[in-house]
Amino acid sequence: MRAIWTGSIGFGLVNIPVKMFSAVQASELNLDMLDKKDHANIKFQRVNANSGKVVPYENIVKGYKMDDQYVVLTDDDFAKASAEKSKVIEIDQFVDIKVIDSMFYETPYYLEPDKSGVRPYALLRDALKKSGKAGLGTYVMRTKQSLGLIKVINDVLVLQKIRFAEEIRKPDELNIPDSSTKPAELKMALALIDQLTGKFEIEKYKDTYTEQLMKLIKAKSKGKKFTAPAMRVVHSKSKDLMAQLKESLETKTRKAS
Fold first, then answer.
1. What is the pTM of this model?
2. Which residues have C-beta within 8 Å of that of residue 147, sequence separation ≥ 6?
């Protein structure tokens, strides 16, 4: 793996030099965009809106429009805005992971200690494991300030990027029904949930769509036909909610026996 960021973790007065690595990878196929006529690759170009000419990457700068004029920013400007934050993941406080709603979670990153940070890295890791808490703090990467949790997964410190509160939309505009639930229906629904409850084993869930798509691609490359699996959509014959719940429980029981 290649490090995508280098800096340090600020843990009180302790400084832990670390490298950051992406902890996830895409499972979907990397498909190219082609011209329908001759299957030539489609290329995207950065074009000057005034002249229509292609602009080389090295000639492109970033700017912010203010009073109908652009203020151009350089790499030095971004660094000067917060030189410390651009190199330090500063832990502001420690929190119980359980109180953080999963809606706030974004991308996870692995953190690896530099040679001089091995001992403090191990100390923070072991302290987090013992306390059951995570470090909450801010950092800057790619000119954007982010909020993150530092937690332990399999003896590795993981930086879990989380969203700021203002990034979560309020559901005020949604049309949510206010109908009351019948006690009998609730009891039946809880029984169905209990029947379907099992151990969380993420390994048994696979990206089967990508797998099927790859089979189709291989078949087409050999001039073979690919037969799509028949869709099996099972609906209850009854429109009554209670009857549907009973049928669901009975169906699950029959499968288990």
1. 0.72
2. 136, 137, 138, 161, 162, 163, 164
Judge: domain 5-34+72-167, CATH 2.60.40.10: no
- Per residue in 223-234, pLDDT (tens digit) is 888 777 776 655
Low-confidence ranges of the chain (pLDDT < 50): 83
Place of tokens 């959509």: 233
Q: Tens digits of per-residue pLDDT, 161-181?
A: 999 999 999 999 898 887 778
Alpha-carbon Rg for the chain, nearest whole angstrom, is 26
Enumerate residues 6+ apart whose C-beta is below 8 A from 152.
Answer: 125, 128, 129, 158
Q: What pairs with residue 110 in β-bridges?
A: 21, 158
Q: Where are the domains of the chain?
A: 5-34+72-167, 183-197+205-256
Closest CA to 159 of 125, 193, 191, 204: 125
